[in-house]
Amino acid sequence: MRTAYTADQIRAAEHALMARLPEGTLMQRAAAGLAAVCATALGRVYGSRVALLVGGGDNGGDALYAGALLARRGARVEAVLAGSRTHERGLEAYLLAGGRVAGVMAVERADLVVDGLVGIGATGALREPYAELARAANAAPALTVAVDVPSGVDASSGRVAGAAVEAQITVTMGAPKTGLLVDPGAARAGAVELVDIGLGPYLPAPDVTALTGADVADLLPRPATESDKYRRGVVGIAAGSDLYTGAAVLAVGGALRAGAGMVRHVGQHAPVAQVRSHWPEAVVTELERPSIDGVGRVQAWVLGPGLGTGAWAHEVAASVLASDVPVLVDADALTLVSRDRSLLRRTAPVLVTPHAGELSRLIGAGRAEIEAGRLEHARAAAAELGVTVLLKGSTTVVAEADRPVRVNATGTSWLATGGTGDVLAGVSGALLAQGLDCYDAASCAAHLHGLAGRIAADGAPLNAADVAAAIPEAIRRVHDEG
Ligand SMILES: NC(=O)C1=CN([C@@H]2O[C@H](COP(=O)(O)OP(=O)(O)OC[C@H]3O[C@@H](n4cnc5c(N)ncnc54)[C@H](OP(=O)(O)O)[C@@H]3O)[C@@H](O)[C@H]2O)[C@@H](O)CC1
Ligand SMILES: [K+]
User: Which one of the ligands is nearest to 114 CA?
Assistant: First the structure.
């Protein structure tokens, strides 16, 4: 399990650790780790050109001490001092090692830029001249290594309020920061390298976590020898309408590939006919009236893809949500429940799977605001609605009251194409039916779906059916990792 922490959590742990160590020890550890990563990235340190962007706080101190170590190994290091003050001892050590102070031109001629403008002590958007230096680093041909977090990225949320450094590598001190795992911040961080400064024993429960393949393998149900299709879980899929048939086909396809014992599809005539012809394995029921009464027992429902948003769909949604099993609410069903919140009043668990636009309708926040602050909005929605929230997008996050938000690390931008959400709903529903709770089902499904997307894309465009077809290979890969 990967874990990440807010700036406040890190600061508290640092204080506890610092109290037991001689002054300056932590910064020396941080700088040594930072210099080692820079040296590896440079390949040859001697004769290389390094520019340091040095802010007024300890983030700048890290950069200066690392710069001193690189200067001693023969690098030509130039520091651009951005603050009204500079870490005194760091600057002393740096100058003593042969480092020089220079203007912004140093950035243009560097092989490597070290971004030590601000770390966890930053507040708000970067001010000048910091913002100008961040832009200069982004425009320069050099490789950029960020110290702790890319400056301009909020360490605790991943928000980017103005100019921000776009790093190829981020060397993070003590433990990863939440903002390195959540977009838009995560996209600015590049590869994240952790420097162990001994913080481990002082860290609290994490703010966010990310499942590894091995974690997913542990959570996924494996059929036992005595399993039959009913024990393995039947997933019901209430999807499709005479206008929209493809969503039902894709959701059923996702569910079939994710290990459900049986998939039961219910809907109007056209989607039922389509599902029957695509998936002879599925059991289909054409609904004569908008109700699931009498369609047979299922362990979990997927409600919504292509269902429509009219009176008929509303009746189907009410009937599914009146059941006593977990329900995944997706797509059109999200529109229905945002119009009629009373549909969500039930005792069995609910998993909602919106993208930012759908969440915007559910909780009334603006779409752009949700994209900018994915974590806090997913958390707020989970608390307000009393449900588990899987917020889709450039980093998918899964939020549930009283649990750390799980961030998915496997996605690919190729997945941003029509129908992939229907596949994700099917995969999640199959995992719910096999007995995973909403939190685990959603986070395992997001992991497998992202991995399947990468397998299907392999660097080229994909379609949603390819993603469903790649789910078994994704499951094999996480078991290999486990
Ligand atoms: N503590 C430890 O044990 C260890 C800490 N470590 C390192 O210390 C870092 C934290 O250091 P920190 O607390 O000094 O804060 P930091 O991130 O340098 O920022 C403060 C400076 O930024 C400025 N500033 C703020 N906002 C700004 C803005 N929007 N735009 C422009 N400027 C802005 C602010 O200016 P001021 O507001 O004072 O004018 C002040 O000068 C941490 O990330 C890690 O790298 C490691 O060495 C491991 C051991
Ligand atoms: K930084």
Answer: 2
Would you say 408 is a known binding-site residue?
Answer: no
Q: Distance of alpha carbon 291 from its chain centroid, rounded?
A: 36
pLDDT tens digit sequence for 146-183: 999 999 999 999 999 999 999 999 999 999 999 999 99
At the top level of CATH, which class does the domain 213-481 belong to?
alpha beta
Token pair for 302: 């997927």
124 is in an annotated binding site: yes
Low-confidence ranges of the chain (pLDDT < 70): none
| The pLDDT of residue 397 | 97
6 assigned binding-site residue: no
pLDDT digits (tens, 9 = 90+) for 11-33: 999 999 999 999 999 999 999 99
What pTM does this model have? 0.94
Q: How far is the CA of 410 from the centre of ligand 2 (A)?
A: 25
Which of 15, 120, 160, 177 to mutate for ligand 1's pocket (most ligand atoms within 8 Å of CB)? Answer: 120
Ligand 1 mutation target, pool 28, 59, 62, 132, most atoms within 8 A of CB: 59
2-206 homologous superfamily: YjeF N-terminal domain (3.40.50.10260)
Please state, in angstroms and rounded to a whole number, the distance separating the CA atoms of residues 331 and 338: 11
Q: For residue 133, which ligand has an atom nearest its CA?
A: 1
- The CB-side HSE value for 311 (13 A sphere, CA atoms) comes to 1
pLDDT of 19: 95
pLDDT at 365: 96
CA pair distance 52, 36, nearest whole angstrom? 15
* Domain definitions of the chain by residue range: 2-206, 213-481
Distance CA 354, CA 398 (A): 11
**Nearest residue by C-alpha to atom 46 in ligand 1:** 27
